[in-house]
Amino acid sequence: DGVTEVLAHRSDNLRDKFIEIPCSEDYDSHKRFAGCTPRKCGRGVTDAVITREEAERIRRIAERGLSLGGSDGGASILDLHSGALSLGKHFVNLYRYFGDKIQDIFTEEDFVLYRDVRQRIQQRIAQVFGISSSAMYLTKPTFFSRMNSTGAKTTHDEYWHPHVDKVTYGSFDYTSLLYLSDYSEDFGGGRFVFMDADSNKTVEPRAGRVSFFTSGSENLHRVEKVQWGTRFAITISFTCDPEHGIGDPLLG
């Protein structure tokens, strides 16, 4: 893998760390939106937006939802917006599959917390990149992930391949990850790796840590395979294109 630098150690408590990098040309092939499309690109890490206690509460939402299903492989997802839930080798729609029982699993407070956390992350990204928070829209997929060391059973389980979010999803302009568990305490492996030409730069997850970055080829990345334990995170993504915007999830 060549040279590896750690951008954020689990033991760090980072107020704000930001590294600016030149933007790729990926944004040129998409419609540009004034006040939002990245002109400044880069990546940031902060431990000052979401508290550990909030991260634990959010993780419990993920645990309750994922306890209803779960993949046969090492990666399970739960998308509260679309209702997508890993089940065996497939996905089911949580809301259709469980119907009114969903009220026994999630509470209104869960969805209020989820929305509040999403808004704070959105505001921090806007502030750091010097754009307008109101010009950014939540986009899909935005989802919880649970990863463990079980071998892959389908291509959905192969989360460790290098990829570029803008190329994979098209609508993404800014990507964020909120970590809900601690590297080396709750799980081994599973670090987030930015793959630069000269070196790899890793982020060690810790509960409440937010990692965020522009979604183009300037931020080619992958996640290391989880070696032991369970890694929880939530991916929250934003677009500048209102046509690709989605609303916050609603209970019922």
UniProtKB/TrEMBL annotation:
The GO cellular component terms are: membrane
Q: Which segments constitute the Fe2OG dioxygenase domain?
A: 140-242
Transmembrane ranges, per UniProt, are none
Q: Pfam families per the record?
A: 2OG-FeII_Oxy_3
Q: Name the cofactor(s).
A: L-ascorbate
List keywords of the entry alphabetically. Dioxygenase, Iron, Metal-binding, Oxidoreductase
Single Gene Ontology MF annotation: dioxygenase activity
**What name has this protein been given in UniProt?**
OGFD3 protein
Lineage runs: Eukaryota, Metazoa, Chordata, Craniata, Vertebrata
